[in-house]
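#structure-requests
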Amino acid sequence: MKLYSWNVNGIRSVWKKGALQDFVKTHQPDILCLQETKANADQSEFDFEEYEEYWHDGEKAGYSGTAIFTKIKPLSVQQNFSDAILEKYDFPDSFGDPSREGRVLTLEFDDYFVTTVYTPNSKGDLGRLKLREKVWGPAYQDHIAELQKKKPVLACGDFNVAHEEIDLARPKDNVGKHGFTDEERKDFTNLLEHGLIDTFRELHPDATEAYTWWTHWANARARNVGWRIDYWLASKELKDRIVSANIHVDVMGSDHCPVSIEIR
């Protein structure tokens, strides 16, 4: 079973470029999770007949959004967090309400859940760091905990944080900046402590220059001055079933590249 995750930074854009079609035909994912779709389902031209499509659109047009395309029909589909989590936390801040931005989508299969997330960016001025630390992070951890009470979880997406210094090209220059604050990194550690493993780091503990996102500035991608902020996490019960975990830097079309796992 091949599972891929990709922040496409606009599904209509990568489709128009031909990048999404080429990627699907080449890699043939069994399950493809997308973030930052920036479109509603009826605006997408995705037309691979072998896939069923599931979308969680944001209320704001052309912003955020997630989708999962799957060759295997799921047992159930959950958009957003559960009602219990939505009632527990006060999500809106001065930038909006991230619980209404189509950021979480979960499909249930026989052996596990597959859940994808587009984590809110804490902003260059750290204006959303409090939300990340006090609201979104704990809410997402509750989401994982709820799922794991039922069956193991495969969680993927753009988590908008480089966890360790090995996960970005210039850690010393970025300490305390958005995506590499102590608070965001601790939040990711807390998430892993819910019984999850970082599949890529588990299989490639010493891999350097392994990045999934590059700024558009200063020819960063060509020089591989990047960050690893896209992940596949897995419940520890699934650890021995993970065959591979890879980063597909050759796939163009977005400022992120896809990440994948293969599970037996």
